[in-house]
Specification:
It contains 10 helices and 4 strands; from the N terminus they run H-H-E-H-E-H-H-E-H-E-H-H-H-H. By secondary structure, it is an alpha+beta fold. Strands 2-3-1-4 form a 4-stranded antiparallel beta sheet.
Length: 301
């Protein structure tokens, strides 16, 4: 146990010495990793947000009929009866005001101030409709038939919304992925060069250590830990930055009427936690790869 603690103390001390010796490069590496992994985190959260926004259209739902919040029972029943008896409609699902509020609670779990401005009575009940054939012209025709029915507030066609969301987020995802790859590569190369400089500065010590019998893995480990530490720090900074941007963007969507289309693009707490963990781990992996490759390549300095 004493020997194990001694080795751990040695590795920690050597890692810290290397970090202090290359402080400027350390800061540059951390910031580069932070930007790269922040994009990874934002990409994951964008994927979660688009999935959440499209949640109501899962299961083949093609359009949704929103009733007036204070709709009379007879009008709501009449619309439902017509939907059930329509030859082009396969099935329907009625969403009560209470159910709509619960769905909104799930979407705004991290925005209690926005949820506080909404009451159950202010939300419209709705019918989610699945037609027998998912054709654009048929869906638009069915939606038009029910827009003028008594008690109907609006009819929202999922096809247009889904297509727009998917197209926008697919483009965004590819851009983020490309930028993440470029920045992750730049981060690994920067850490690679930093470890190379550190090993060159300590080449005499490395030679002495090899002469007294130190193994290659024993010599490499402090340098690899240094790279992982840079990656970890960059991952934490990137995750924090992604979290700040997430809160800012969701608040902007919630306040702006122009961006009202994006209000359903929310990320739950569990999804944010997953994205944060993935962001930090990505930073550690980038740091480990860059430092491990450098430590293996330049060990014989």
């Amino acid at each position: 146990m004493t020997g194990l603690l001694g080795r751990a103390a040695y590795f920690a001390r050597e890692t810290w010495i290397n970090v202090r010796r290359n402080l400027t490069l350390t800061v540059a590496a951390i910031l580069t990793v932070a930007v790269g992994v922040m994009l990874v985190g934002l990409g994951l959260m964008a994927r979660y947000a688009s999935t959440n926004a499209l949640g109501r259209w899962q299961g083949g739902v093609q359009f949704e009929i929103f009733l007036e919040p204070n709709v009379e029972g007879g009008q709501a029943d009449a619309v439902g009866e017509e939907l059930r008896n329509h030859p082009d409609i396969e099935r329907i699902q009625f969403i009560t005001q209470e159910q709509a509020y619960k769905l909104l609670e799930e979407m705004l779990v991290d925005e209690p101030e926005l949820l506080a401005e909404v009451s159950v009575e202010s939300l419209p009940p709705s019918y989610r409709v699945v037609p027998r054939v998912a054709e654009g012209e048929l869906i638009e025709s069915l939606a038009a038939q029910f827009r003028e029915r008594p008690g109907v507030y609006s009819v929202e066609t999922g096809r247009q919304q889904v297509d727009a969301i998917r197209e926008w987020f697919n483009s965004f995802r590819w851009i983020v992925l490309l930028m993440s790859i470029v920045l992750a590569t730049a981060s690994a190369m920067l850490i690679f060069n930093m470890i190379r400089v550190a090993m060159f500065a300590r080449r005499r010590e490395i030679e002495v250590m090899k002469l007294v019998g130190a193994t290659n893995s024993f010599i490499r480990l402090p340098f690899i830990l240094e790279g992982m530490l840079h990656g970890l720090a960059g991952g934490v900074v990137g995750a924090l930055a992604a979290g700040v941007l997430r809160n800012h963007v969701e608040g902007l969507f919630g306040r702006s009427e122009i961006l009202a289309f994006f209000r359903s693009f929310t990320v739950t707490s569990s999804q944010f936690t997953t994205a944060t963990i993935a962001t930090v781990l990505m930073g550690v992996v980038v740091g480990a790869l860059g430092s491990a490759f450098a430590a293996g390549k330049f060990l014989d300095v």
